[in-house]
Design a protein that fits this description.
Layout: E1 5-7, H1 20-27, E2 29-37, E3 45-52, H2 60-103, E4 106-110, E5 117-121, H3 123-127, H4 138-144, H5 150-163, E6 166-174, E7 180-188
Antiparallel strand pairs: 1-2, 2-3, 4-5, 6-7
C-alpha cells in the first residue's frame, strides 16, 4: 500500500520485524528499503534493498532511486506481459487464418466508419486475387460487384446498418480473371 518502506532498523520496524528471527538477524541485515512492484497497477512483488550491518537511515535520494528502479522493473514486467499476449495473439491468428483458408471461405472485416476492409481466407483460390490485390476499402469491393447486383447490395447494406441486423445476400463479383462468380455474403454489423 505504500510507495516505499524505508525501514532504518528493519529488525525492530513493525513493517519488517516479522522477518527478523528467520531472515534478517541470521544474515546480519540491519536496514531494508522495500519498493512495491506494481505492473499495470496491481501489486505483484517487492524490490528489496538490503543493508548488511547496523541499522541506518535511508536518505531521500536513495528512496527516490529505489522508486525509480521499482518503476523500471514494473515497466519491464508490463512489456514482457504485452509481448507474451501479442505472441499468443499472433499464434492464434495464424491458426485461425490456416483454418479459414482450409475451408475455402473468404472473410472480411469492414470498418463502416472508415470504409477500410481487411481480408482473410482463400482470396486467391475463390476470387482469383492475391491478398495484396484485394480492395482496401468498400468502394473498391463495390467496383467488383456486377452492375446488375449493385443496387441490391447497396439496399442490403443500408437495411442491415440501420437495423444492426444480419447481412445476407447472394450477388456476383468479378474475379481476377474477369469472370463473375456468385458469392453468398453473410455478416453482422457490430455497433461501436
Amino acid at each position: 500500500e505504500s510507495d516505499v518502506i524505508p525501514a532504518a532498523d528493519a529488525q525492530a520496524d513493525a513493517r519488517t520485524g516479522e522477518f527478523a528471527a528467520a531472515y534478517l538477524a541470521p544474515l546480519g541485515l540491519g536496514a531494508l528499503l522495500d519498493v512495491p512492484l506494481r505492473p499495470f497497477g496491481r501489486p505483484e512483488g517487492v524490490l528489496c534493498c538490503e543493508h548488511l550491518g547496523p541499522p541506518r537511515r535511508w536518505e531521500a535520494d536513495e528512496q527516490v532511486f529505489g522508486l525509480a528502479v521499482g518503476g523500471l522493473v514494473s515497466l519491464a514486467r508490463e512489456r514482457w506481459e504485452r509481448e507474451q499476449a501479442e505472441d499468443a495473439a499472433r499464434a492464434w491468428n495464424a491458426r485461425y487464418e490456416a483454418a479459414v483458408r482450409a475451408t475455402g471461405q473468404v472473410l472480411y472485416d469492414w470498418d463502416a466508419t472508415t470504409g477500410r476492409v481487411e481480408w482473410a481466407g482463400s482470396c486467391a483460390a475463390t476470387l482469383g486475387y492475391r491478398d495484396d490485390q484485394m480492395p482496401p476499402d468498400v468502394d473498391g469491393w463495390a467496383a467488383l460487384i456486377h452492375p446488375d447486383d449493385r443496387a441490391a447490395f447497396d439496399r442490403e447494406v443500408e437495411r442491415t446498418a440501420a437495423a444492426c441486423a444480419p447481412f445476407r445476400l447472394e450477388y456476383r463479383v468479378r474475379r481476377g480473371d474477369g469472370a463473375y462468380v456468385t458469392v453468398d455474403d453473410r455478416g453482422h454489423f457490430l455497433p461501436n
